[in-house]
């Protein structure tokens, strides 16, 4: 049996009714150019080989599939397995799509790669990829975020990246996006705007998914080799949705495998302080594509909150919206408190400090494992490590 989502997106970048290129005509022409270049380059042996070698010898792929024996015993139910994206070079899954985009920029002869960053994770991963590929990198970052996220700013500078402080508006992520975008539009033919998740106009949701799909490909094969079967449940946290779609793609045809995306419920779904876009969002447009969004009556994005800064985005990847509507992926949410509990529990039972983002998926697995038989296997995408969150958590918990 074939499923419609295997051919998605369509040539206009739609996953069902979501996605597309909702941008001015001059930008649409540029996006089409990137799409054409990507479709050509991705099929060349040179590009495929170069990316495969970087994944192996630079990122350290394949990342291990690890059975969390002590966490499983503590929860007393289903067995919990972790896909260790936290062990990648730079400590998270983001390097997978940053390398892909930096390499594409090189093949397209671009002279500069630029992007915005909020907490700095996308900025550091992109600065790393650009240093490796040998392309100038420019990252726009709000002045308030620069103060808050100093270690990441330092790393970007060490990596040779030009960090542009943004002093307009609220001096945070939203203004950094505007600032980076203004710079991009000065010369979109020679610059590449590298997007940090499966969001933005076509072809980015597709490209970023393709670059991340290595995660699920590895995990499925590893699970079969190690356990002689497939997992029953596969779960991952969802901000924009790149680590989740990267994990889910290879499992989409395995009807018996339940796929669950975990969103941030923040301080609670009954408060304004969450970022549960799939659970509580409505259809709308954000950053050049259609998806579920958290928006006001005029379609303006609402302020969102999560203890994990990588998850607080008021939109979500278009493919996730489609997969929710057809019922192939289920979306659940985890609060800040449940996330913190999982962060500490995984650290103390397994000696693995997870990113606060990834802790949402861990928390969800912990929550459901208890009530399930021990024959059940849950695979969690551990999207990143928590070194970056250590000071924040220890202060928060008074450690
Ligand atoms: C950025 C980030 C995320 C959120 O991004 P997605 O595109 O939803 O995957 C999740 N985990 C980690 C560790 C991150 O750095």
Structural overview:
The mean pLDDT is 96. This protein folds into 2 domains: 15-55 and 94-205, Rossmann fold, CATH 3.40.50; 60-92 and 213-397, Rossmann fold (3-Layer(aba) Sandwich), CATH 3.40.50. It is built from 16 helices and 14 strands. The chain is globular and about 55 Å long. It is of the alpha/beta class and 399 residues long. The protein has helices at residues 25-41, 45-59, 69-75, 94-107, 121-133, 143-148, 150-158, 173-184, 204-212, 214-227, 242-248, 277-280, 318-325, 336-350, 356-369, 390-397; strands at 14-15, 18-19, 65-67, 79-84, 112-116, 137-142, 162-166, 191-193, 233-237, 258-266, 282-286, 289-293, 329-335, 377-382. The structure holds pyridoxal-5'-phosphate. Pyridoxal-5'-phosphate (PLP) is lined by residues 92, 94, 121, 197, 237-243, 310-311, 355, 357-358, 383-384. Pyridoxal-5'-phosphate (PLP) binds next to α11 and α15.
Q: What name is given to the CATH topology of the largest domain?
A: Rossmann fold
Ligands and ions found? pyridoxal-5'-phosphate
Poorly predicted tracts of residues = none
Tell me the CATH architecture of the largest domain.
3-Layer(aba) Sandwich
Largest sheet: spatial strand order: 3-4-14-9-10-13
Tell me the number of structural domains.
2
Write the layout of secondary structure elements.
Elements: E1 14-15, E2 18-19, H1 25-41, H2 45-59, E3 65-67, H3 69-75, E4 79-84, H4 94-107, E5 112-116, H5 121-133, E6 137-142, H6 143-148, H7 150-158, E7 162-166, H8 173-184, E8 191-193, H9 204-212, H10 214-227, E9 233-237, H11 242-248, E10 258-266, H12 277-280, E11 282-286, E12 289-293, H13 318-325, E13 329-335, H14 336-350, H15 356-369, E14 377-382, H16 390-397
Parallel strand pairs: 4-14, 5-6, 5-8, 6-7, 9-10, 9-14, 10-13
Antiparallel strand pairs: 1-2, 3-4, 11-12
Helix pairs in contact: 2-4, 3-14, 4-5, 4-9, 5-7, 9-11, 10-11, 14-15
Bound molecules: pyridoxal-5'-phosphate.
Residues 92, 94, 121, 197, 237-243, 310-311, 355, 357-358, 383-384 line the site of pyridoxal-5'-phosphate.
């Amino acid at each position: 049996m074939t499923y419609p989502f295997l051919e998605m997106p369509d040539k206009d970048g739609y996953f069902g009714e979501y996605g597309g290129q909702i941008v001015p005509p001059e930008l649409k022409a540029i996006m089409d150019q990137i799409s054409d270049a990507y479709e050509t380059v991705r099929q060349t042996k040179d590009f495929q080989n170069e990316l495969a070698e970087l994944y192996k010898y630079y990122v350290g792929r394949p990342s291990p599939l690890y059975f969390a024996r002590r966490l499983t015993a503590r929860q007393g139910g289903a067995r919990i397995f972790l896909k260790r994206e936290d062990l990648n070079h730079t400590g998270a899954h983001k390097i997978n799509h940053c390398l892909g985009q930096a390499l594409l920029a090189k093949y397209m002869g671009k002279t500069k790669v630029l992007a915005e960053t909020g907490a700095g994770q996308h900025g550091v991963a992109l600065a790393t990829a650009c240093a490796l590929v040998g392309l100038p990198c420019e990252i726009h970052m709000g002045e308030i975020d620069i103060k808050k996220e100093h270690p990441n700013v330092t790393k970007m500078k060490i990596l040779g990246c030009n960090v542009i402080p943004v002093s307009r508006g609220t001096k945070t992520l939203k203004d950094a996006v505007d600032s980076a975008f203004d710079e991009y539009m000065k010369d979109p033919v020679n610059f590449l705007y590298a997007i940090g998740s499966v969001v933005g106009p076509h072809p980015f949701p597709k490209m970023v998914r393709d670059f991340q799909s290595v995660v699920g490909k590895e995990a499925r094969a590893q699970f079969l080799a190690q356990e002689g079967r497939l997992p029953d449940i596969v779960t991952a946290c969802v901000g924009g949705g790149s680590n989740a779609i990267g994990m889910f793609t290879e499992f989409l045809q395995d009807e018996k495998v339940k796929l669950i995306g975990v969103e941030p419920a923040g301080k609670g779904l009954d408060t304004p302080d969450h970022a549960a876009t799939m659970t509580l969002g409505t259809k709308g447009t954000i950053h050049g594509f259609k998806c579920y969004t958290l928006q006001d009556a005029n379609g303006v994005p609402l302020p969102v909150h999560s203890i994990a800064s990588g998850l607080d985005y008021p939109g979500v990847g278009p493919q996730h919206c489609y997969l929710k509507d057809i019922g192939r992926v289920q979306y659940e949410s985890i609060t800040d408190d449940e996330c913190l509990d999982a962060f500490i529990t995984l650290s103390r039972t397994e000696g693995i400090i997870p990113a606060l983002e990834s802790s949402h998926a861990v928390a969800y697995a912990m929550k459901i494992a208890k009530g399930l038989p021990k024959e059940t296997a849950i695979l969690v995408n551990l999207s990143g490590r928590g070194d970056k969150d250590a000071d924040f958590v220890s202060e928060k918990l008074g450690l």
